[in-house]
Write a structure and sequence with these properties.
Pathway: Secondary metabolite metabolism; quinolate metabolism. The chain is an alpha/beta fold and about 325 residues long. About 40% of the residues lie in helices and about 15% in strands.
Length: about 325
């Protein structure tokens, strides 16, 4: 396996040059970029620092250098979830999506090494479908969505409508956790990211299954969960046990136990240790794990795909699937 083959399906972008969002989209309280130098900036929410970032978020030259150093041929470039705008009125979220989707294409620049994914105003299914169609025509390959919209999870009727549209137009969907609960217990040690994100992804994978979504959307829907599917793979046996023993409460609209659906979606490999990757492959199957790094953020994996490359339990044919072939199937590219 060479660097000419490896595909990283989980990276993010923060384009520079976005306008004052209050002017461009309406409303107030939008994120804004505090530029400290040509290479450093801070994403701000009102007067609070959200995240420090650097030029790897917006400069393709920096990104290409890091890809070469990591041995990665292509990256999927997705939005940063803080900019989803799902809590906004739909008309504002439409304008927001257009701003960032158009700017993302200026970063990827039509270079085949960078595969752009768009964002959509998921709180409005019709508007989300329209923006996806606009973006696919403009050069985006797929879409990243948050794992929920307020209290609406992936089995919400409107979100299912959007997923069905994605299946009909052949757009791959990358599901990223976001908007984790806050509490005094979670506001220490980055606990919202260390425990909240895995739990959010786990919950939404269950919603997809127990809510009957995978019984209703066509198998052509290509869906991938970030961060190794969160805690879902580790607790899949518990979910099956509950489905069998407390079916009166647990089965929901699903026709089969949760483990019967693992061939219907992908998960990325950013789990950081060989034992965790072994569990992931054993649980999801060797055809359903793809390399993801969470580049360029500090909780991501560098070099990208290191655990997959070095895993002693993988055969070379399995390694080739995780590094390349599975991502091609998810993305629908050669």
């Amino acid at each position: 396996m060479t660097s000419s083959d490896v595909i990283d399906v989980h990276t993010h972008v923060v384009p520079k040059g976005w306008p004052d969002l209050a002017v461009a989209c309406g409303g107030d309280g939008w994120p804004w970029l505090k530029v400290e130098s040509e290479r450093e900036a801070i994403i701000m929410i009102r007067d609070r620092e959200f995240r420090r970032i650097d030029s790897s978020c917006w400069d393709p030259a920096v990104r290409f250098a890091d890809m070469a150093a990591d041995g990665v041929a292509r990256q999927v470039v997705s939005p940063t979830p803080v900019f989803f705008g799902y809590d906004r009125p739909a008309d504002q979220a439409v304008r927001l999506s257009r701003v960032f989707n158009d700017l993302t294409l200026t970063v990827t620049g039509g270079d085949s090494r960078l595969i752009p994914f768009c964002q959509v105003p998921l709180q409005d299914p019709a508007a989300a479908c329209a923006e996806l169609d606009r973006c696919l025509a403009a050069g985006h390959v797929g879409v990243e969505i948050g794992n929920h919209v307020g209290d609406r999870d992936l089995d919400d009727a409107g979100i299912v409508e959007f997923l069905q549209h994605c299946a009909s137009v052949g757009a791959p969907v990358f599901v990223h956790p976001w908007d984790m609960p806050e509490s005094p217990r979670l506001d220490r040690w980055m606990a919202r990211w260390l425990t909240g994100m895995p739990a959010e992804t786990h919950l939404s994978a269950l919603a997809l299954i127990l809510g009957g979504v995978l019984d209703r959307v066509p198998p052509s829907l290509r869906l991938c969960f970030a961060h190794g599917g969160g805690s879902f793979p580790y607790w899949l046996g518990r979910a099956d046990n509950a489905w069998e023993r407390r079916g009166d409460l647990v089965r929901g609209r699903s026709t089969m136990p949760p483990s019967a659906y693992t061939d219907r979606f992908y998960v990325d490999s950013v789990v950081f240790s060989e034992p965790a990757l072994r569990l992931l492959v054993d649980t999801m199957g060797e055809d359903r794990v793809v390399v993801g790094s969470d580049y360029p953020y500090p909780l991501g994996e560098r070099p990208a795909g290191a655990v997959v490359r070095n895993a002693s339990f993988l055969s070379e044919s399995q390694r080739a699937k995780l590094l390349t072939a599975n991502a091609r199937a998810f993305l629908g590219v050669r």
